[in-house]
Amino acid sequence: MNIDILLGLQWGDEGKGKIVDSLSPVYDVIARFQGGPNAGHSLEFNNVKHVLHLIPSGIFHADKLNIIGNGVVIDPAVFKKEIEELGPSVNELIKRLIISNKANLILPTHRILDAAYEGLKGDSKIGSTLKGIGPAYTDKTGRNGLRAGDILRNDFQQLYNDHTKGHMMILKNYDFKFDLKEYEKGWFEGIELLKKFSVTNTEYLVNELAGKGKKILAEGAQGTMLDVDFGSYPFVTSSNTISAGACTGLGISPKRIGDIFGIFKAYCTRVGCGPFPTELHDETGANLRNLGNEFGSTTGRPRRCGWLDLPAMKYSIMINGITKLFMTKADVMSGFKTIKICTSYKVNGKICNELPFNNDCEIETVYTEIDGWNEVITKYREFSELPSALKKYIEFIETQTGVPVTIVSVGPDRKETIFRN
Ligand code: GDP
Ligand code: IMO
Ligand code: MG
C-alpha cells in the first residue's frame, strides 16, 4: 500500500502541480497516469514559476524518479519544448524521467482533427484545449493508435504515414485549413529527443519499486468533474481522471493504493464549456478571477469562477474514495466579508443532492454563508496561526464531507504550504 494518488476534485487547475512538488521530498517516484498536454501544472520556487504539461511535477527534485505512465497521451513536439525549457540538461533529465512504451502518441493530425471537430460543433463546442487529446484517445480505444514504444521500430515512418493518411481521408470531409508540414517538423524532432530517454515497460518498474517499499505518488491531471465517465459529459476530457485511472494508467493493482488525496480550491473554477452550477457572473466572480489570477496555464483563457460546490465535491469524494483533502487558494478570498458555500441543489423546486444527468436542467443552488477573514494568510506556516474564520470554513467542509483537510496551501510557492498533523 505504498502508492498514493493525488487528483483534482473539481474541474481541474486545483493546484496539483504545486502540491505534488511540495510533497515530492517524501516520495521516491512521481508518476503521471493520464491526460496529456491539455494539462498545465504550475509550481513555483526561488521566485520562478514553471508550467508542466506532460512531465510529472516531481521533476525539479534531482533525486526523484519521474514516470510518464501508459495512460498518458504524448505529443512529442510538446515534450521537446517542455524538456528544453525545464532547465536541467537532457543528460541529467534522462536519469530522472522514464516513459512508458505503451503511452499513446498524439500525432500532428490528431491536433488538426481536434480543431476540425470542435469547429463543426458550433454552439455546443466543448472548449477543448485543442491539443489533440480527444482524437488520440479515440484512436487508442479504437485500436488505431501509435505508441511511444513504436518509435524504436524500423518501420516507424511507414506506420506514421499510414496513420496520417487515414486521418487525412477524414479531414477531406471538413472545410478546414491547416499546414501539416509546420506541425510535423517539431513532432519529428520530438521523436528524436524521445529516443534518448528510456521508453520501456514502466508497469514492471512501478510494481518492482512498490514491492521494494519505495514510495510512489501517482499524479492526476484535469479533475473528477472532467472525467470521461463521471464528469458533465460531453463537456469532459477523454480519459479517466479518477483514482481508478491510476491503476489502469500505471499498471498497478488497487491493492497497492494507500492514500487517495483529493485537492480542491477554496472556491471553484472551470475553463471551457459545460455546466457550472455555482458560477458567478458578477463582480465577485471577476474578483476571484483577478485576485486568483485565474487564467488557464495551458491556453491563457480566463477561467470561469464561482463558490465552492459541496454536492459536486461530495460526488468526487465518493467516486475516488478520498482519504485526505488538500485545500488551495484560500488566500485569494482574504478580505471577502462573507463567503458562500453551496450545500445542495434544487431541481424543479425540490432539493436534489445528486448531480443531474442532463446538462441542460436548471439547477438552483442552496448556499450557507460563512464569515470571511480580513487577514493576509500567505505568511503563515502553522495551522494554528490561521484566522479563526478560515478554520471555521475548513471545519464546515470537513463536517459536510467527513474527510479531514490535511494540507492548506496559502500561496503558489512550494514553501507556502501548511502541513497539518
Ligand atoms: P493544476 O493544473 O491543478 O496543477 O493547477 P494550475 O497550475 O493550472 O493552476 C493553479 C494556479 O494557482 C497556478 O497558477 C498556481 O501557481 C496557483 N496556486 C496554487 N496553489 C495556490 C495557493 O494556495 N494560493 C495561490 N494564490 N495560488 C496558488
Ligand atoms: P489540469 O491538469 C482545466 C478542459 C478543457 C475543456 C475540456 C476538454 O491543468 O488541471 P481537452 O483538451 O481535454 O479536449 O478539453 O477539459 N481541460 C482542463 N481544464 N485543467 C486541465 O488540466 C484541463 N484539461 C482539459 O478546458 O473544457
Ligand atoms: Mg492546470
Give a verbal description of the structure.
With 421 residues, the protein is an alpha/beta fold. The protein is built from 12 helices and 20 strands. A hairpin with a 7-residue loop joins strand 19 and strand 20 (417-419). Helix 4 packs across helix 5 and helix 4 packs parallel to helix 6. The relative contact order is 0.16. The model has no long low-confidence stretch (mean pLDDT 96). Bound molecules: guanosine-5'-diphosphate, 6-O-phosphoryl inosine monophosphate (IMO) and magnesium ion (MG).
Which structural category do the helix and sheet elements fall into?
alpha/beta
End-to-end distance, in Å?
20 Å
Integer-rounded radius of gyration: 21 Å
- Considering DSSP H and I runs of 4 or more, what fraction of the residues is helical? 25-40%
Low-confidence stretches: none
| Widest sheet: strand ordering | 9-7-5-2-10-1-11-15-19-20
Number of strands: 20
Mean pLDDT across all amino acids: 96
Number of helices: 12
Strand proportion, as a percent range, falls in 15-25%
Q: What is the makeup of the main sheet?
A: 10 strands, mixed
Which distinct ligands sit in these coordinates? guanosine-5'-diphosphate, 6-O-phosphoryl inosine monophosphate, magnesium ion
Oligomer: single chain
From the spread of the alpha carbons, the general shape counts as: globular
